[in-house]
Amino acid sequence: MHREPSSVFLINMMGGVDICPSVEIMTITSKLCLQGESSLTGTQVAHQLVVAIRQKCSPEEVINILKELPNSGENSDQEMSDSSFNPLKIDVFVQTLLNLGSKSFSHSFAAVSKFHLVFKALAESEEAQICILHNVFELWQNHQQMMVVIIDKLLKIQIVDCSAVATWIFSKEMTGNELNDAKEKFAKADSSSSDSEDEAAPKRKKPVTVVDKPTEEMVERMEEKLEAANVDQKRLFLIVFQRFIMILSEHLVRSDTDGRDPDTDWYRWTVGRLQQVFLMHHEQVQKYSGTLETLLFTSDLDSHILEVFHQFVALRA
Predict the structure, then answer these.
(1) Cβ atoms of 128 and 110 closer than 8 Å
(2) Domain MIF4G-like type, which positions (predicted)?
(3) What domains, with CATH codes, occur in the chain?
(4) What is the pLDDT of residues 269-289, one digit of tens each?
């Protein structure tokens, strides 16, 4: 199955999570009980949600139930419809819904699809989208494949943006020294499912249809979509390379300040991942090499990081 290039890139990038074979799901009640004063309200609303969802409630009914929750974010005087970021609403909704849909992939997909409207209402900012991703990670951090497919689903139905996923991947939650094994597992899991779909595709008999010549208006719309996709892709690469530079620079500065050797396992692994991004996506990255050199890989950057970019440019010369 063909997937949007930006989604493919993120699926290969994701996975700064150390995965264990066992599956242990923290319940919404135990999570909310750790949140201080809001725990009682959060738990009560979570229980209402469980009952309502099991009784086949509508997305609008879920939104009304979530209105009972106070806004623990900065804009506590705004309503959900005013694009306020309410982490408690997101915690309660995402944890409750995905717990109920945790029986299988199909159950999770059905739950996300049915309450797409609620997700869109809650995910109106990048900060809110990152909070959704955090909750998916928190719930499924011990089950790599489930986390992969749910986030891939959220990308495909445009609940979260590629830029939000890229920013989340490089958050401290995902880039700790102990969280270094899952990118390969994530890429392999997604590659395996994609290969299976591609192998099955030729077996399906497609009906023969006569395609009319596209109108000028249709061509213009397609060109606009292509231009928008190129802009999004460029922005995504800039975000990813900027984050790589930030975490590597912080490591080098901290090592210098503490008088430690910066050449750690984590450093070598991260530099290797940066090199892999250049090589795996060389055709796309080459188009933006001038912009990367002007904005990110500038002469004042640490020579260790800059060398990776120069090696890539030399290979493409």
Answers:
(1) no
(2) 38-287
(3) 6-34+42-69+85-162 (1.25.40.180), 226-315 (1.25.40.180)
(4) 999 999 999 998 888 899 899
